[in-house]
Amino acid sequence: MAGGTTDTGDSNHIVLNRQGKSYKLGIQSLNQMGLSANQIYLQDGDAIHVNSQSRNKVYVLGEFGKIEPVAIPEQGLSLAHVLGESNGLNSNTANAAKVYIVRDNPKYQYTNIYYVDMQSITSFALASRFDMQANDILYVDPTGLARWNRIISAILPSTSAINVISGI
Fold it and tell me: Could you give the domains of the chain?
């Protein structure tokens, strides 16, 4: 009756507050269980909160073709999809053997870190089945040569300046 979620609302992260208890709901998770949101009847005093989609992103860092957050659509997002949205790994600097997903778990005092070796062809199949979650961080380490090149690039301007000053 309210007209559904707005363009910025996330229908997969809805909280129903009823008699002091909170129930997390989502259209996608209900559909996976064979249920519909139409089967949930509201009672007097119920409150519904729809989270914003702006909080529903995966953060991409490291050696990618494009470094920017990737929004999670209503149907979900796989690791393979994030790799595609980020224009893949940078072929000049990325170490495909060192791909990490960092997932914080606020309910517990630990963080999960998943490691993927994208040099193996079987990892591509697994990447399409690995579901990303809001606030996951996807990181790709640079190759040893890329790191060395960055160190040398940082040092060379200093050595050039020393040569100019010592020549004066």
Answer: 9-54 (no CATH), 56-144 (3.10.560.10)
